[in-house]
Batch of 4 targets.
Target 1
Amino acid sequence: MGMNMKTKLRNYHAVCWDEPIIYELDRNGERAIIVPEVDKKIIESVGDGISSIPKSMRRKNLPQLPALSQPQVLRHYLHLSQENLGVDLNIDIGQGTCTMKYSPKINEQFANSEKITEMHPYQDESTSQGLLEIMYKTEQLFKEISGLDRFSLHPGGGAHGIYTISSIIQAYHKSRGEEGKRNEIITTIFSHPADAAAPRVKGYKIIIIYPDENGCPDIEALKKVVSEHTAALLITNPEDTGIYNSKIAEFTKIVHNFGGLCGYDQANANGLLGITRAKEANFDLSFFNLHKTFSSPHGCGGPGSGIVGVTNKLAKFLPVPVVSYDKGNNKYFLDYNSSDSIGKVKDFYGVIPVILKAYAWTMSLGAEGLREVSNVAVLNNNYTMKKILELRGVSMAFPEHKHRIEQVRYSWEKLAKETGINTENIQRRIFDFGTHYWTSHEPWLIPDPFTIEPSESYSKDDIDEFIAILGQIVKEAYEDPKKLKNAPYKSSVHHIDHDVFDDPSKWAITWRAYKKKYNGYFQPK
Amino acid sequence: MYKIGLIVNPIAGMGGRVGLKGTDGREILQKAKSLGAISLSPKRTSAALEPLSVIQGKLKLMTCPGDMGENEMISCGFVSDIINGIKSKETTFADTQKAARIIRDRGVDLLLFAGGDGTARDIYIAIGTTLPVIGIPTGVKIHSAVFASSPSKAGELSLLYLQKKIHQLREAEVMDIDEQAFRNGIIKARLFGYLKIPYERRHIQGGKLGSSPSEEIIHKAIAEDIVESMDNDFFYIIGPGTTTRAIMQRLGLGYTLLGVDVVYKKEVIGLDLGESELLKLINRGKAKLIITPIGGQGYIFGRGNQPLSPQVIRKVKRDNIIIIATYNKIVSLKGAPLLVDTGDLSLDRELNGYMQIVTNYHERTAYRVKF
Amino acid sequence: MNLKKTVYPYIPNSEPQVQKEMLKEIGANSINELFSDIPEKLLLHKKMNLPKPFLSEYELKRHIESILSKNLTCKENISFLGAGCWQHYVPAVVDEVIHRSEFLTAYAGEPYEDHGRFQAGFEYASMMGDMLEMNVVSIPTYDWSQAASTSLRMSYRITGRDEVIVSKTINPNRLLVIKNYCNPNVNVVMLDFDPNSGLVDMNDLEKKISNKTAGVYVENPSYLGSIESNGAKLSEIIHKAGALFLVGVDPSSLGVLTPPINYGADIVCGDLQPLGIHMNYGGGVAGFIATRDEKEFVSEYPSRLFGIAPTENSEWGFGDVMWERTSFANRESSKEFVGTAAALWGIAAGVYLAVMGPEGMQELGKGIIQRSLYAQKEIAKIKGVKVPVLQSSNYCEFVVDFNNSGKTIKEINKTLLKKGIFGGKDLSKDFPQFGQSALYCVTEIHSKEDIDRLVFALKEVF
């Protein structure tokens, strides 16, 4: 009969190929592909081509790339892919803040169509109406989803979205002659690290607000620091604790009263679609991660997309071009008509395949479907929370918030005190069960943290299985902590000595550097 | 081979359990014993040694006879060299100081000591910053920042330092409180000086260590921020500490590490000033006060900066107080507020509320201050 | 209202019975109750006004395909467009690898369960390192423009100087990105080019460089296709002033062009798109940054850098080098910021270089130059058309001058379009000094027949 993963865990082992570095597979002279031959008549006409290059600019030696036949290259990379664990393969709810969800395969088919892959950005607009229509319609969807008035599809990720927002904030204050005076950005300690890092590139001073006793950003602290120097508030809501800041409209009001703008980091939007929006809380700007909330796959860390929305008064600062529609001629076009634009933040018009996938996903769900996404994401999260808190040694920050939105930051503080096992030990042990979890963004105000975000893509049984794995590890922590400390046992690789990565004489970021520094292989320990 | 020294203050912590707030002085100790106090040091020291068992074969240990270390070594199964010339029972502060010097002179990588603020003070008097140390908290009074947050953390930190997973050192405050006054309900903390301890940044994540900017670099960045916005109309009263020291270094000025100095138009106009001298200066013009939390508990007033009296603080005014501290220091408070204890309750009340802390160049945190 | 609740295929727990079970377990009466922290006045009390969804996969496919069918591709036509996004052949193996679920859907796991991602990233950086002969290469950033902007900010941090000099022959859109990224800390000064050769004007460089200069950024080949021949001289002037020499490069050229480090470049950047990534309407770009393996350079990267290290079992293991540089570890005191960017395109570029091998990359570069020379030679035969405009050698792209034709580029390209040809990028706005000129791009995908067809069509235009 079928097995019950809640009572008997899978006997998992990661694929382990002990795969060589591709250079170790090099066999001089092998070819994996033949480059199209140059027509004889061309050669007769122009010669070898190389002699047209100034001598000082000619490459003297062949690049030191490995040479392999095609099946060898493919097998090598398939081995590597098998030594990797994607959302498609595991119950990926341990990677909190990242909104790991199912990326429908049909959307991949769309994105792999030659009708998008073989399109050049400078084609005549009459030949790219299909893509311009997708871009235009995507913007219309997001206007309704956020309540904001205009979007730029350019930014290539969430941090890039925040950078774009910071640029627009600066341009806005400059247009009012207040660029020098408004030099402070206020953010919170539980907002994404980029909310503090990206505005610094724009020269802003950063002021950080800590949570109050209830786990919400401290509104009294905000009142204390807001001033005529405030350029903007950049804030996540819910923060990575999963707690919805119910005073958010007061926050934006306080900042507006002092002439500052309010930017909404909507990386954590998955629990709020169709429930509450940037507009209702009076935000001026916001961004969405299409590669998280809107299902485009994460691709090992991109291509991503962090589209930015603004209210009407800020629309003129958006990067150029935006996509507009000429109703009379029924034509979509790239609109560069903006004298106050911040210019550009990215080459061309945005990460088109990601935008297309997000459009298709949204169109497969509609208003009710998006609401169902959030309903289930929040249902799953609260169910998971209930189950996790039943485990020994676990607690959560600010327990007085009975319900959370789409994720929760938990703590192993008690377990660590009682067993000496910390969150990183657990992280390394969970690999042995065919899944993974991520600790938390720095700084760790909550001791031994972990953040779980069970998006709408996981079934009750999936969640139960994940919790059974945690339960098994907790049991081991109390019964056999030594064993736990030496994990992983069933991973693709064993324990890695991380010390070399901080030592300039030992780190090796390329194979060339490795060969130079080690003159052979690492000495086995 | 990793070489470690260990000094245990066997009587540290005995006073606390029987409500005596410390064991400085023979009489108090006798009283503690008569009240049935037992020493916490052996158990806590053993807890600190436990994490080191993984490198037992590579450890060369050096400790004092009997109660001052040997007993704990034996109970943990460690073999160690026992230094000569120290009593094994009924030891005093003189034994602690003497042992520290002997161990330093015989050469170790790290000195572990178990005790409280009084013990830290003795270690400081004996060896200063000539050797990295880690304090195992076993005493009643733990105001000094040289102690790990728990005995086992002290052991883990030692292990990381010995294995060179932590390279950087930082200077941490040695504080002590006048026990006599403490027993009478008055806290008079003094900043005695600094010991060198391994610098553990926030927490240890997956072995990703070592490349973080050193504390010194962050101190420099804070100093840069402060100097950039210095106003020539103001007297700058610079409180004690290594964080504030960086400002004086940035300005190329002389300074006192433990005292209160004053700068005007980027020049020193007084070093190590007392309350009355400060008041005299402030009466001549506007002043700003730059301070950093002293000790491990987040006190900005009332611990180690006595010249900054209630009168001085009132004169400067709350808005002219600039707090500086590394992010690391703030995070180590785990959300607890900064504390004030000026000795003037109504002033403490006025200081209550939110203040900004400069944590890096162009970086501030809005933080709660409580009394 | 529908009586029957929709069960969504992508949402397992949208089934009503299981929702009930879970609510019971939580101790809540309804899902709405879980949102109790959200104040009433902030709730959206209406259904969002979105188009009716396509619930079946088939209907969705019909919908998307009907929109996409309005596009005309570079495959259905012959395209001579480049200018920052180039049509090269993408080997089937590249697509096969990056479409694998394990790579496509992974994210930010640890080096244990995501060993393959780290190794593939390390190998990409290694092979790029060999193309560039540099020992440090970053995990990809958004695009070349971001890579160039970051290179400039790195030079600002390394030298402690706050002015950078940027050549006017770089991609004009890139300049917009750079200007926004440098604002407000770093001042951007423009460097003239020699109108005859299209190469850097050395006199102007000597005039503008000073002890304030942090870095000088030049692209080679330039946006206009010219190959800079004075690299060593440039390097001498720049280094004498104590500044850093930053070079942007099309990596597809490096099978035949010498790596910039050989003429003194300190930081090299560029785009990976030519290396096995489809054009995707400009959405297939990914930037790289490379330097020597020196601590003062490595510590200034904002990007992730993967290093190799042994495991306790003497297997290959990987991890992040100098993690504390990044905004993940250090928030506001980090070097710029890092986040999701273009990692999968980096894996694609790695597979591409492995497939091409050393000889493949050399043949690629050589074939592109030959085809491009042939195209220039044939176009030059057309009366009223001037090519080459710039008296310097070029790679892949070249400027064609149509001023004597009496027609605008817009008009010419319209006519070409009718013949199934996408003519070169119109330069009349960005480089008005060339009047009605266009930037043509020829790569290995162009056959002799394709080029001949262009020439034939151009002849018919006049």
Target 2
Amino acid sequence: MTSDPEGWFDDAAGPVVRPYAMTRGRTRSSSEEKLDLIALVVAEDRSEGEDDGLEDAVFPHTLSPEHVDIVELCRAEPMSVAEIAAELDLPVGVVRVLLGDLLDAELVRVSRPVPPAQLPDERILREVINGLRAL
Amino acid sequence: MVFGRSDKRHRPDVEPVALKILVAGGFGVGKTTLVGAVSEIKPLRTEEALSEAGRPVDDISGVESKHTTTVAMDFGRITLREDLVLYLFGTPGQDRFWFLWDELAQGALGAVVLADTRRLEDCFGAIDYFERRGIPFTVAVNCFEGADFYPPDTIRDALDLDPSTPVVLCDARDRQTVKEVLIAVVEHAMATTPEEEAAPAVG
């Protein structure tokens, strides 16, 4: 594969470079396959402290402010990967890498999404229909 | 010193289930409007950096230009129950982002193809995509003011759809009609048994 000598100058490269500085250049995480756009992320209880400034005591120093932001976001309610990306205004790829770190540190857990290529069972679909009707 | 607290905020004991429905259609047909009509949050926008979005590196065909580095996806959320959440994803309208659809389509319950009778051909691509992958979809005709009215059967013929594919009329701004569209999508998904159609997505 030859690289395109025309590509990745100036503006073309711009938006890609800065966000990935937060991940120290990593573009993949080991937990990627778990991190579907709608996989729901929940902060683990042990990272839950008092609301007033216990973070320093609880979060390892290796975490970036963005890591901490993610944990904070996922504390109140489960948040999808897509929502976290939108909320923090970060590319989904960056969020995936950061979430991988948090998973490794056991600061968050991810709910298992419905396996791809397999529809949720009929009961759930019925509940969806009823839920939509009741909106 | 950190004191343990046992009275943590209560979370549902059941693992929450998240489902997604895709909203596809030509550029400017009203996808974001439709998502906004039912979403409990203002449609959010997230960006995917293209340099790595081809993660399943199998399909970069059709990407003539690599100059654009990010693409936006709009999405909304409907919490049906504490532990049941439906996400709506507006797929990127431009053809050159097809390969991003593969990730979006993975695990999707079904799809809405939003059509405008004045530019019916704009949704051919989306219909083709879902047909080839066996993803159950419903065609929703966004009834723009000033557009001629066509009965659903005429539209079905014009789009050469399978007789079982629902065609519904809607107003993408109107919550009630959009709800009907989504219900049609889920009902159609229920009626479609995925058996042999669930061929692995190729290319």
Target 3
Amino acid sequence: MIKVFTLAKTTLQEMLREKVFSIVLLIAIALIALSFLLGALSLAEQRKILADFGFLGIEIGLLGVSLFSGSYLISKEIEKQTCLLILSRPVSRSQFMMGKIFGVIALNTLLLVSLALVLGGLLGVWSDIDTLLAYLKICLSLWFESSVVLGWVICLSLVVRPVLALGGGVIVFLLGHWLGDLTFFAQKSKDEFFLLGVRFFHWVTPNLYKLNWKSAYFLDTGIPLQNFFWMLAHMTGWMILLVLLANFLFRRKDIV
Amino acid sequence: MSVLEVHNLNKTFKGGLFEKDHSVLRNVSFRLPEGQTSGFVGSNGSGKTTTIKCLFDFIRPDSGQIHFFGKPLSSESKTRIGYLPERPYLYEFLTGVEFLRLHWNLCYGASLKDFYARADEALKKVDLTHVKDRRLRTYSKGMLQRVGIAQAILSRPELLILDEPMSGLDPDGRSMVKDILKQEQQRGVSLFFSSHLLLDMEELCQHLVVINRGQILYDGALKSFVNEYQSLEKAFSVLKGKEDARD
């Protein structure tokens, strides 16, 4: 575990020193600031606009890290052969992979905490315990979403070029969010092929549609405990599956 | 006793849709005697780097056996081996000393007992003490090669495997690397390094492994190899010519 921690720390250090964190943080803060300004244009909907755009800013920041870091995380190590020295030490490929993944997840966590503090302060979520709980659940759903997308992108980057892996990650994200709508349309159309396709997507993409909580509505009404536990189980399952798949693919890969 | 035994190693890279499979290693077998310096010589593309990558399982061989200190590669044997790849691309965002600490932690866990003394010793050997707190990004190619050697010798390994340690270095750099290797020889370390610089081989090695087109042409004492043909260069070209003519 110490080796995994050492590698995760080094990965985090790399991203902090290479200014990835600062750039993404700045973009996300700019989006939150923009939502604050947009909110100021409206008298009645100020809080709604701030919450909706603020969550979107956090989501974009986290996804940006997951997509870009994930697609180059392992492929860069293989291409530049920096992983050779690490793997020549008493470090297994699985430990190496876990270290890299935990490093990016640590960066996303740091980013989420920073942005959530800013947005939470602007929304004043600390005043009411129910709102605070709903806010934390929404933030956790964003963390899970970015982690699962990261897992997908890493798996893809082990079989195709990084740019294609990045594109694949975007497609998984979009499909995950469209699953509900696609199911609705498939049922309406009653087309067998369409229904089969949607069923297939249900199996290969995480259901992000059900986690679409990032709005003022859910902040005010709260998120039922049942839905929250479903999210924990569903997303943890996906994360475990993707980590196992990434390890399997990396173990079989020749580092030429 | 042999520090490394390679037996019948085969590797074929699968071709693409319209490409043929490419056999890069064919029944590669050799053994390295303990406490000696062994050279791994062959022309470009002969399979030197692929063989070394197979040793560490970076490339999975199709068949064959590799034994370090009489056992298959394991975490335990990895702590007894130092390695430097052909082009040491390192984590350039780290400083020299941070880079060494990373490798120390991967070998010995979080404990930094002995680390500073060993790091100082290794950095002194490669003459990089004065730049140890500078990021690797600011190092020259020769300095990167030397800090790579410092990480390889940090854990005082019993076997050092270096892939083309002198390629791309200027004469001063090469001379410094050779001096470091000689110091390690004196310490009793078994050395295995690949090169196509035959003069360096003649100067440093007692044992020689010659590879051509993925096949081992010679595995034995350098002296008897050279005696037959007067110089290593001549011996190598004659042996390689014979093999090529046979193919």
Target 4
Amino acid sequence: MRLLIIEDDREAAAYLVKAFREAGHAVDHAGDGLDGYALAREGDYDVLIVDRMLPKLDGLSLVRSLREQEIATPVLILSALGQVDDRVKGLRAGGDDYLPKPYAFSELLARSEVLARRRTAATGSGEATAYRVGGLELDRLSHRVTRAGREIVLQPREFRLLEYLMRHAGQVVTRTMLLEHVWDYHFDPQTNVIDVHVSRLRSKIDRGFEHPMIHTVRGAGYVIRADEPQPS
Amino acid sequence: MNPAASPPQDGLLARLGKIFRTTAFKLSLAYLVLFAVLASLGLGYVAWNARRVLDDQIVSTIDAEINGLSEQYTAGGLRRLIAVVERRAKEPGASLYLVTTPAGEHIVGNVSRVSADILARPGQYEGYYGRGSEPDQSDHRAIMRVFTLAGGFRLLVGRDTEERDRLRAAIGNTFGSSLALVVVLGVLGGWFVASRVLKRVDDMTETTRTIMAGDLDGRLRVAGTGDELDRLAQNLNLMLERIGELMRGMKEVSDNIAHDLKTPLTRLRNRADEALRTAETPEALREAIEGVIEDSDGLIRVFNALLTIARLEAGNAPESIRRFDVGEVAREVAELYEPLAEDKGMSLTVRTEPNLILDGNRELVGQAMANLIDNAIKYGVRSPEASPQPVAVSAVRADGVIRLTVADRGPGIPEEERGRVLDRFVRLDAARSRPGFGLGLSLVSAVARLHGGSLDLADNGPGLAVTLSLPAGAV
């Protein structure tokens, strides 16, 4: 994906640019709000990563201006501000996701990839009614899940968990992303609560099959992949 | 004298300028002007009134004399009138008399010169006249009345106004000098008050300067007069007190952070160090680095928790307030933790009343619930060997307060420790061996305060019951 990072802290920006490039993405960088705005208007980016506090034009105003220009590139807002309603303000200004500093890069990477994917998916016909990953199928209308034709009975929450994983098949999703989208809470679960849910789901999905589909990515989160090992 | 100690000339000027610019001085000046204007008006009125009364008196005396004289004339003719006028004109005193022929020629009287216009027409005048007996021939001012007697003879009776004019001059002089006195006293008074106020303000400025320079223990002097400057000083002192408290709180927190983050940071460093020294295969290195990342994530988590608490203590933001059902949040969070409890063999029961509507921050209440349930699952076991105990979550309303309670059957917390565990980074000895940073309850407590509620720890006999009380109409 093609990213634009708008961040005035040189060191942080250099680290992000390098890290995203290593993850195989094309990255541009702008050091202040005005440069960022100009680049974001002209360039064709999949995701914008915008720091909340920027010289010349602050992050929220930047996003608001872009939205007024009907530029719908997904925006992830980074913020070190200490207000309770930062997140609400960020999303209200037109941001698509929000990450408070300090954050783990794996979290930022996972969220950016999901946002970029959402953009490409949005050009299609909206949300699919069914997902298929390898031999695993999930029908959102009939709430049925089958793997290799065998029906798997899931609890409602497990169903939503699987649905989210499958919608982002092949992409890493973090624990906080799962908590946000499956449970609709935006806090950091203190212990391994999400892990327990995932391992329950995993036991239902992967039990009796040779190749597991739900994988743990250490230090990042989870990913669901087709059950046949990818030829590498 | 030490030249540095003597104030230079422009210093004095500056000080004068400062006094003139004080509110006290300006107010004194304004009152002075107002007082002078009012006093002038009052005195002017008195002077005008006195003159009117005197004039009336003069006029009525003149009228009485004219009446008397014209009666003499009617009774005894011109001869008698002349005789009477001649006698009266010689009396010491003020009255003026003149009798003339119809053509205006003097017959008798003590007025030697008077304007022909006055004599020509009968009536009352205020004008100048000359006295026959006086050598200097100067004019005097008088109120006169001219009366035409039967036969065309003119009778003039008048009264010198010198006394009246002298009174007026006296009043004017008195007024002038007292006004001058008032102005001088007013300016001096204003000066005095202003310099006193200025001195106190200068004292305060001096003190605040030393406080700004870093001496936070300095306090403004309160004179004890209870005036507005005192009240200002008292309020500023209270503010300083509060600032001092906040500073101490902040210092405490940063000390705690420094202390408690050192442990995980050291662990992180050691792990990296060890990997550098001992890891020989790429796999081992990779594993070590992954461990390092995990440790860093833990640190980030601590920072985020600290930041959240700090944010909560800075106050709520109206944009994050919305209406939600607390019972639903309790059920959702309990459901989130249910598998975790089950894995530990604990049962997690939830009991909620319907319609526990609260205007508040759903995220934070959810997070608080999560922390409480997390704690109950972590610490609700009396000993590793003991059989798992149930954890009960309940949400009820009583007297307009929504009570969220998480009760476990673990060892509980001794009463004397209950207040302490709400502080940041406090971990009781029993908890030291388990993961965590001692921020969970601090955060719950901050959420309670933010919603105008409270957090209570009680004995669950046995175990611990933690209740988060939120006023139903909160925030």
